[in-house]
Amino acid sequence: MPHVLPTVLLLACCVAGLLLIPLGLPGLWLMVLGVLGYGWLTAFRSVGIGVMALVVGLASLGEVSSARSWAHSPGPRYSSTPEARGPAWR
Question: Which of 5, 12, 17, 69 could link 27 by a cystine bridge, Cβ 3.0 to 4.6 Å?
């Protein structure tokens, strides 16, 4: 299989993931799925288990650090105005 379709899939997942992040949606995991899909479509010749483990590990580390920083930050989540509290789905 030519690498055009997997590359387009990977780019589409990355761009869509980046567009979801400002909305508070899990764009990071869409990008991880794009890397895993790229590996699957190329029969794991281009993306090996080491790269996939690195991507999933870094994404997990990013989620944990984000959750920890959000949980330990004082401020807007206790505010009375909806704009200061942020998205309702947090």
Answer: 17
